Every structure is written in structure tokens, then in C-alpha cells.
Amino acid sequence: MSSGVHAFDVSIHPLQQRLGSKQSGVAAGCYSCHILHPETVSIPSWLSLNYSCTGSPQVWEARPSPGKGIGVFATRALEPGDIILAEPAIIKIEPPDFRDGAAYPLNSIESLLYSAFDTLSEEKQAEVMSLHAHLTPDEENQDKDSHMLVPIFRSNAYIVGKTLSELGLFPKGARINHSCRPNSSQVWIDKIGKRVVRAVRPIAEGEEIFATYIPLLRDQKSRQQRLDQYGFKCTCSACTQDRAAQADSDKRRSSIRKAFADFEPQLTLSVPQSINGRKKAEKNAAASVDLAKLVEEEGLADYYAQAYRVVALSHARIEKWDTATLWAHKSYELNLVADEDSPATLEMMALTQRFIQSWNADLYNKSKQEG
Questions:
Q1: Which domains does the chain have, with CATH numbers?
Q2: How far does CA 136 lie from the centroid of its chain?
Q3: 73: Cβ contacts below 8 Å, ≥ 6 apart
Q4: Is 152 exposed, middle or buried (0-12, 13-18, 19+ CB in 10 A)?
Q5: Which secondary structure element, helix H or strand E, spans residue 196, and what is its range?
Q6: Which of 130, 157, 160, 270 has its CA 20 to 30 A from that of 352?
Q7: How far apart are alpha carbons 264 and 162 in whole angstroms?
Q8: Cβ atoms 77, 203 nearer than 8 A
Q9: What pLDDT digit, counting tens, does each position of 225-263 carry?
């Protein structure tokens, strides 16, 4: 899953090159390189003779979205992994300690917020103040001109920073509307100091780009309740299905949430030695594939890498090294395009290499026995 969520949401949910090449997978003149590897690029790609990358680097535009105010739309076709936007925080603050199960105390961060805002140019202040904010009844009765900064920040800020201890505001990214089946994923990359938005499925030219504001492994009613804090009712494809399809979707998300929780304590590399332990591990391996299928069927691309990791580790426990390797590599590739230096990327790279070694050793031993 993508790392980082809206700042005042309690939960953090979780997203191509071949193994061993930790690069962005794009040509030196491409938009991805301008963002992630600026030291390798001297001039914009569309002004160079590098024909492997064509067109302007901005692949989105903000314009009215029916029923949603302003939205962000693709200006060309995008493939999974393509960078849509990379943006530094226009305001970034470190609030008081976050208490699990409760929102950040806004009163205690108000002075930090205004201090950061006062350092901005008039143009950047206007950019911040142009963002939409959902107002509480008390805020509705206040002078909006003098009290809009806090609601704007509350409605649009994200958790950021190397230790996820800071709050950041990203005016361009804030234009991306919510969907419970998003086609983009967002992650804070600390080494470049930017929040990067990538496509997680093919996006057609002119199609609206969506992110998620909330954890997605809840039923439709619960998701709508969580979205009340943003002041809208979701009308995405997952929330406007007919009753039977909605019930099936709710059941899938509930099953996925429960499966992730049930698998977590069993995700080790220890191989069961007892007959019963082996049978249980084999049953879990089969169930892990079912989990991956459910995640794909529900279109929860943010959870693909996590599900593939479960499949890989579950098959490693029964020494099915070929299957474990393939699923580990799939998870690695997804993590790589999200953040090449993240702990998840490094873990899956190491696991893939380890499983390949075990697979080769297994094949060698079998060939010796047959010989």
C-alpha cells in the first residue's frame, strides 16, 4: 500500500526494472528522471534530441469535475508506474505527539501553521487559500476570511517525513479527488523531499485521476462515514454499484482485511517440521493465492504489493521456491516504482535473491538424486 494518508485520519494504509537494477526505469530525459534523478538531466526532455521521451513533462491538468468541484485529469495515456506529479510541501510542520485513535489537536498546531504560512510569498499564500475546505458548524459561523487556513490544512494535509511525524500541504496534489478504487498512489520520498503521485493502473487520456483519502478495507457504509470529515459522499464506481454487487464488494474487502490480519503472525521464513505444521502451511499457501485474487478482483492496486508478499512468504514456508520467487519479484517491482529505497523494496529484493538461491539449490539437489 501506499505510505502516508491524510493527516487527520488515524490509519496508514499501504504501493519497471529487473531485479538488481534500482533505477526508475525511464530514459534519462524523462519526467521521472527530472523528479527522482535531477542530477542526470541538464535540459528538459522535450527540448532535447532524446526521442525516447516525447511531450511536456506535465501529464495532468486541473479542471472542473462534475459534482466534485476541481479535479485532475490525464493529458495523455498513462501506464502503471508513470509519475503523474511530484511536489514538495508548500507548508510542512511537526505537530505535537500523535495519539493513536485520536485526531491531531488542531488548537495546539494552529500557531505552527500560521507561522509557516507567514513565511510564504503572497502568490503561494493565495495558492494555499484557494484550496477547498470542509467547515464544521462552528467554523461556518466564523469570519471565513480570517479562519480558513486551519480548515484548509485539516482537509488537505498529509502525513509526511522520514518517520511519518510531520504534516505537509501539497496544493497541486490536493486537487486530486477521492475514489474507493483509485487509479493513482501517493508516497512521500524523503531523499527528494517530495510527495510522488504515480499511476497504479492504465489511465486513458482525459480520464480523471483519483487517490484515496481513507483506508479502503471497510464496507461502503463505513467508508462513507469516514469521508464525512471531508464533507462529501463518494460516488466512485465502488460506491455506486447495484445492491448485489455492493454486497459482494463489501464481502471481498472484509475478507481481505481479515486475511491480512490472520496472515501477519505467520509471515516468517521458518519451514514447519511437523506433519500437521506442513499441512497447515500448505493450506495457508493456497489461501494466500486466493487473497491476491481477491485484491485484484476488487481493484485495490495499493494493496497488490502487500498481497504478493504474503503469497511469496507463504510458499517459501513450504519450500515452493519457484512460486515464492515469482511472487516476491512481483512485489519487488511494485515497491520499486513507488520508492526504490523504501524498506519494503529492499526487503523484497533480498527475499527474491534468497528464493532464487534456494530454487537453484533445490534443482541441483534433485538433479543429483535423479543422476
A1: 31-228 (2.170.270.10), 243-370 (1.25.40)
A2: 28
A3: 60, 61, 62, 63, 65, 206, 207, 208, 209
A4: buried
A5: strand 194-199
A6: 160
A7: 24
A8: yes
A9: 999 988 899 999 999 999 999 999 999 999 999 999 999
